[in-house]
Design goal:
The complex is a heterodimer of chains A (about 280) and B (about 300). By secondary structure, chain A is mostly helical. Chain A is built from 12 helices and 2 strands, in the order ααββαααααααααα. Chain A has helices at about 1-40, 45, 60-90, 95-110, 110-125, 135-155, 160-170, 175-185, 185-205, 205-210, 230-240, 245-275, and strands at about 50, 55. A two-stranded antiparallel ribbon of chain A has the order 1-2. Chain A is globular and about 65 Å long. Chain B has 2 domains: about 1-65; about 70-305, Orthogonal Bundle (MetI-like fold), CATH 1.10.3720.10. In chain B, a hairpin with a 4-residue loop joins β1 and β2. In chain B, α3 (about 85-115) crosses α11 (about 260-270) and α6 packs antiparallel against α10 (about 235-245). The longest helix of chain B is centred in the first third of the chain and has 64 residues, at about 1-65. At the A-B interface, α1, α3, α4, α5 and α6 of A face α1, α3, α4, α5 and α6 of B.
Chain lengths: ~280, ~300
C-alpha cells in the first residue's frame, strides 16, 4: 500500500512536470523572441520598404502576406462551407462520403513541402502563373480547405435539429432552411475556421517559398512574385543576413499569431455561450 | 354558371402555374445540391491531382534510375548525377523517431494533466497555451532552435550544434500541441463510469488514470501519435534551420543531418533537369510515407469510432 502511494506521488509529479515543461517551452520561446525582437521593432520597421536583401523595413512582406491571405481565404472559404453543408445536410452515409472524408483527412496530412512541389509544378510551371501571389494563393487555398471543411462541419452539426424541423415545418424548403436558419447559427464556428486558416497561411513557409517566390518588393498585381513574413524570416535566418531584423520579424509573427489565437478563443467561447 | 366555370378555369391555371413554379424551385434546389456536392468533391479532386502530378514527375525518374539505387544509395552528388537518398531517409526516420520518443510522453502526460488532474483554473490557462504553441509558425520554431538550442548543444556537447539532436528537440516541441490536444480529446471521451468503477474498487486516482483511463483511450492516443509522426516527418523549414543539412548518413545524434523535406526545399531553388527530377522523386518517397501514415490513421480512427 505504501509502495503504491509512493508510485502515485512519482507519477503525479511527472504529470505536473510535463505540463510545466509544455507551458515552460511556450513561455521561453515567447519571452526570448519578444524581448530580443522588441529592440528593433519600430514604426519605421513596419512601414518602410526593404533595402537590399533584408535591411530596411518589412512593409512589402506585410502587404504580400496580406494579399496571399485575402485571396486564399476568398477562394477556400466558399468552397469549404459548401462542402461542409453537403457533408452535414445532404450526404447519406456510404461510399461517397467515406471517400470524401478520407480525402479530406489525407489532404490535411499532406506536408507543406509536397504542396509546394505540387504548386510549383502545376500552377507555376504547367499553368504558367510563374512565381506569383496567385500561384501561392491557389496552393494555399487547397491546403487550408480541410481546416475550413472540418471546423464548419462541426459547427453545422452543433446547430440543434429542432431549428431545422421548425423551419421545414413552417413550409420552408430544405435549401432556404439551410441558408436562413442553419448557416446563420453556424457563423461563429465558420469564423473560427477562417481565423485558424489565416493563422496557418501566415505561418506557412515551404509551400509559399516554392510558389510565391521571394521578391522583396510590394507586388503590383496578383501575377507578381512577393515575399511573405515567414519566408522573409526564413531567408534572414538561413542566410544569416541580419539576426536583429530576424528577431524583429519573428516578434511580429508571434504577435499576429497570438492575436489571432485570442480572437479565435473569444469566438469559440461566444459560440459555447450561445449553446 | 359561366362565372363558376371561369373561376374554375382560373383555379386550374393557377394550380398549374404553381406546379410549374414548384418544379422550377425543385430543379433549382437540385442544382444547388449538385454545386455543394462538387465543392465536397474538391478535396478528392485535389488529392488526386496532387498525387498525379508529383508521381508523374518523380515516378519515371525513380524507375529510370533504379528503385534500389535511389532508395538505398548512400551518396547524393547532384553534380555527378549520383542520387542516393538513403541518408535523407535515415535522417527523416531518426529525427521523427527521436521526436516521438521525447515529445509523446510529455504530450500524453500533459493531456492527462488537462483532462484528469489540473484544477479548472490552471487547465483554463494551459489549454490556450497549447493552442498558441500549435499556432506558432514553424519558421519561428526553426529560428528559435537556431539561436537558442543549437548554441546550447554546441556548448554542452560540442560539434557546432547543428545536428540530428537539434532536429529531434525542435520536432519534439512542434508535435507537442498535436499530441496534447488529440490525446486530451481521447481521454475526455472515456465514460465517467470507468473512472467511478475503478475508484469504487479502491484504486487511487493515479492508478485509475494509468490502468483504466489511458488504456480505454488507446486508439485515440495512437491516432495522436500518428498525427505527430506525420507532422514531424513533413516538417521542413525548422529542420533546415537547425539540422546542418549534410547529405551523409548521420552516425551519431550530434552529426549534421539532412531530411527528405530539407533535401527538396534546399535544392529546388537552383535545380534543373535530372537533378530537379530527383528532388520530385524524393517528394514521391516522402509522399508514400505520408500516405502510409494516413491509411494507418484512417484504420485507427475508424476503430475508435466503433
Amino acid at each position: 500500500m505504501r509502495d503504491n502511494s509512493v508510485k502515485d506521488k512519482i507519477m503525479r509529479g511527472l504529470v505536473w512536470l510535463s505540463a510545466f515543461v509544455t507551458i515552460g517551452i511556450l513561455v521561453w520561446i515567447l519571452t526570448y523572441v519578444l524581448i530580443k525582437g522588441m529592440g528593433s521593432l519600430s514604426w519605421a520597421f513596419l512601414t518602410e520598404m526593404a533595402r537590399g536583401d533584408g535591411e530596411g523595413g518589412i512593409l512589402p512582406m506585410i502587404v504580400t502576406t496580406f494579399y496571399v491571405i485575402a485571396i486564399s481565404i476568398a477562394m477556400a472559404t466558399p468552397i469549404g462551407i459548401c462542402a461542409a453543408i453537403y457533408l452535414v445536410e445532404y450526404a447519406k452515409p456510404g461510399k461517397l462520403v467515406r471517400t470524401i472524408r478520407f480525402a479530406t483527412e489525407s489532404l490535411a496530412g499532406i506536408p507543406s513541402i509536397i504542396f509546394g512541389l505540387f504548386g510549383f509544378l502545376f500552377f507555376v510551371t504547367v499553368l504558367h502563373f510563374s512565381f506569383s501571389i496567385l500561384s501561392g494563393a491557389l496552393t494555399l487555398s487547397i491546403m487550408v480547405l480541410p481546416t475550413i471543411v472540418r471546423t464548419t462541419e462541426e459547427s453545422l452539426k452543433a446547430v440543434p435539429q429542432s431549428y431545422r424541423e421548425g423551419s421545414l415545418g413552417l413550409g420552408a424548403s430544405k435549401l432556404s432552411t439551410i441558408m436562413n436558419v442553419v448557416l446563420p447559427s453556424a457563423v461563429p464556428g465558420i469564423l473560427a475556421a477562417v481565423i485558424l486558416s489565416v493563422g496557418r497561411i501566415i505561418g506557412e513557409t515551404a509551400a509559399i517559398y516554392m510558389t510565391v517566390g521571394m521578391a522583396p518588393y510590394i507586388p503590383k498585381g496578383f501575377m507578381e512574385s512577393g515575399r511573405t513574413l515567414s519566408v522573409h524570416l526564413y531567408l534572414l535566418a538561413k542566410e544569416g543576413i541580419s539576426f536583429e531584423k530576424a528577431y524583429a520579424t519573428a516578434a511580429v509573427l508571434i504577435i499576429i499569431v497570438a492575436f489571432l489565437n485570442f480572437i479565435a478563443n473569444k469566438t469559440a467561447s461566444a459560440l459555447n455561450r450561445n449553446r | 354558371m359561366d362565372d363558376t366555370r371561369m373561376y374554375e378555369g382560373e383555379a386550374v391555371e393557377e394550380k398549374s402555374y404553381k406546379m410549374e413554379e414548384n418544379k422550377a424551385r425543385k430543379r433549382f434546389e437540385k442544382m444547388v445540391e449538385a454545386v455543394f456536392l462538387f465543392c465536397a468533391f474538391m478535396a478528392v479532386l485535389s488529392v488526386a491531382v496532387i498525387t498525379f502530378f508529383v508521381f508523374a514527375r518523380g515516378g519515371p525518374f525513380i524507375l529510370e534510375y533504379g528503385i534500389g539505387k535511389f532508395i538505398l544509395g548512400r551518396q547524393w552528388q547532384p553534380l555527378g548525377d549520383v542520387f542516393g537518398i538513403l541518408p535523407m531517409i535515415i535522417a527523416s526516420i531518426a529525427g521523427t523517431l527521436g521526436a516521438i520518443l521525447v515529445g509523446v510522453p510529455i504530450g500524453i502526460m500533459t493531456a492527462v494533466f488537462l483532462s484528469e488532474i489540473a484544477p479548472a483554473k490552471i487547465a483554463d490557462i494551459t489549454r490556450p497555451a497549447v493552442d498558441l504553441l500549435a499556432g506558432i509558425p514553424s519558421v519561428v520554431y526553426g529560428f528559435f532552435g537556431l539561436v537558442v538550442i543549437v548554441p546550447l548543444i554546441d556548448k554542452w556537447f560540442g560539434g557546432g550544434g547543428n545536428s540530428l539532436l537539434a532536429i529531434i528537440i525542435i520536432l519534439a516541441v512542434m508535435i507537442l500541441p498535436t499530441v496534447v490536444s488529440i490525446s486530451e480529446a481521447a481521454l475526455r471521451a472515456v465514460p465517467r463510469e470507468y473512472r467511478e468503477g475503478s475508484l469504487a474498487m479502491g484504486a487511487s486516482q493515479i492508478q485509475t488514470i494509468f490502468k483504466v483511463v489511458i488504456p480505454a483511450a488507446k486508439s485515440g492516443i495512437m491516432a495522436a501519435v500518428v498525427l505527430g509522426i506525420g507532422r514531424a516527418i513533413g516538417e521542413t523549414m525548422a529542420v533546415i534551420l537547425v539540422g546542418g543539412n549534410t547529405a551523409l548518413i548521420p552516425e551519431s545524434i550530434l552529426d549534421r543531418a539532412r531530411t527528405m523535406t530539407a533535401n527538396i526545399a534546399i535544392e529546388m531553388g537552383y535545380a534543373f533537369g535530372m537533378h530537379q527530377d530527383a528532388l520530385f522523386a524524393t517528394g514521391v518517397v516522402l509522399f508514400i510515407f505520408i500516405m502510409g501514415l494516413n491509411i494507418l490513421l484512417n484504420l485507427l480512427t475508424s476503430k475508435a469510432g466503433d
